[in-house]
Amino acid sequence: MVLLHVLFEHAVGYALLALKEVEEISLLLPQVEECVLNLGKFHNIVRLVAFCPFASSQVALENANAVSEGVVHEDLRLLLETHLPSKKKKVLLGVGDPKIGAAIQEELGYNCQTGGVIAEILRGVRLHFHNLVKGLTDLSACKAQLGLGHSYSRAKVKFNVNRVDNMIIQSISLLDQLDKDINTFSMRVREWYGYHFPELVKIINDNATYCRLAQFIGNRRELNEEKLEKLEELTMDGAKAKAILDASRSSMGMDISAIDLINIESFSSRVVSLSEYRQSLHTYLRSKMSQVAPSLSALIGEAVGARLIAHAGSLTNLAKYPASTVQILGAEKALFRALKTRGNTPKYGLIFHSTFIGRAAAKNKGRISRYLANKCSIASRIDCFSEVPTSVFGEKLREQVEERLSFYETGEIPRKNLDVMKEAMVQAEEAAAEMARKLEKQEKKRLKKEKKRLAALALASSENSSSTPEECEETNERPKKKKKQKPQETPQENGMEDPSVPVSKPKKKKSFSKEELVSSDLEETAGSVSLPKRKKSAPKEEPVSDAEEAGTRIIPKKKRKFSSKEEPLSSGPEEAAGSKSSSSKKKKKLRKLAQED
């Protein structure tokens, strides 16, 4: 008896289902086909053994990528090892994808089967899955499938191997379309402006130059010798500029109104801007081709190589094509028409636009196109599968085509392909080493810049951190300095003070009240020198006691401040007489102030 298990992958998790034991699995097919649409009958055949839900959408995306690549994820491995029987020979596991089945059989040792009855069972499980798993509704299952589908598609687009080919395909398609549009618009400008100046068409052949001249000349009657220098700049030829000036004087064109000229000039400016954009787009295409397919672009040119890639769909598809397909790529209509009418098949397709076929003789065009297609196939494979893109192989292949052309013309025997490829391998290794050195230098420069930036940031942060405590210390020190300076200051006493004595602040006198002046006078008569600090809210009844207390506080500080050269102010008869006269003057002033009050 064989026990059949079926693995079902869903957006919400893995489900392992078991079927009833039968001698042969093929006998289940008619029963399963009958009961797929009926849930009750389907439950009699299939039962849910285990369900492993995904923890998050990121885990679901990882498992979906692993299943699509044929890799056994750890979640799937844990589920199978836990819930499948230990006797692996009696277990048959049904899976929907042969790749994941081969991976499970190789890593875990379980026999896997796909197709037949397994497909029918999976169809029924997909239909009734929300009924088999408890707590899962049809709406939540649909939402999970939609979210996983979006994330899986986004990841595939993001990690597309051929994503750089898309830019080349779009660029060459736009380039071809621009060529058609510029030609059409230029013919319209020629016809429109030709009514006014028909002779200009025969003189100027280039479309962009004609549009620039039509925009510059405007009314031909206003063209004179002063504009000859500008004409030479536009035409890049002095003879053509002179011919345009002469033709404008004897032109057979009709007169044209100002509004018509404005419209012609506006349309000409649009055509000129389109031609300039076409040149910039061609430059962009060349840069992209040198990055994506350097060997192919070195062999047949950027435009022809881009057309081959666009026609094949991607560089990988072009690398898969044989040389015979590359030779007639772009000539499918002629090929099938020849096969239908049993005529001659085409010798070349898009590679006809390369310079080699045009340079070959008529009898050698088929031979050189076959040889060129062979080299294009080799170059596309080198570009597709090489890790380091280099144009060395393309240049060597181009040399081989040149030698083959000369062999057809002169009979000179070309070099063997083996010798040429050996030379190319040596040069490619040197180029790869040179590129590695350049990348290493760039990485070193980047690391140096990063180190300098981090060092500058660290220095700035350290300066900021060190400046903050210094500022705090400065703010703490400032009031202390002010307090020390206050007792050192003494008022000037009408110029009678000794110059060796420290000078007090004169600004403090402005803020003193009448009571403070009275107290200071009383102190000076008592023999004190320093100016006391008084509060404005002090009572008037006790000025003398406060002054004496202040004098007792300040006098010892003043004695400490004296140097060896200085002496107290009370020493000497002259100083005593000066102090008496000043005190008498201040008393008179105080009496006057008291009378006014």
Short note summarizing the structure:
By secondary structure, the chain is mainly alpha-helical. The protein has helices at about 30-35, 40-45, 55-70, 75-85, 100-105, 115-130, 140-160, 165-195, 200-205, 205-215, 230-235, 240-250, 260-290, 295-300, 300-310, 315-320, 325, 330-340, 355-360, 365-385, 390-410, 415-485, 515-525, 545-560, 575-595; strands spanning about 5-10, 15-20, 45-55, 90-95, 110-115. About 65% of the residues lie in helices and about 5% in strands.
What does the model show?
This protein has 25 helices and 5 strands. The longest helix is centred in the last third of the chain and has 69 residues, at 417-485. The relative contact order is 0.04. It has helices at 28-35, 39-45, 57-69, 74-83, 98-107, 117-132, 138-158, 163-194, 199-203, 207-217, 228-235, 238-249, 258-292, 294-300, 302-312, 315-320, 323-327, 332-341, 355-359, 365-385, 392-410, 417-485, 514-526, 543-561, 573-596; strands at residues 3-9, 13-19, 46-53, 91-94, 111-113. It is extended, with a radius of gyration of 50 Å. Helix 8 (163-194) packs across helix 10 and helix 13 (258-292) packs across helix 15. Strand 1 (3-9) and strand 2 form a beta hairpin. Strands 3-2-1-4-5 form a 5-stranded mixed β-sheet, with helices on both faces. With 597 residues, it is mostly helical. Residues 444-454, 583-597 have a biased composition (Basic residues).
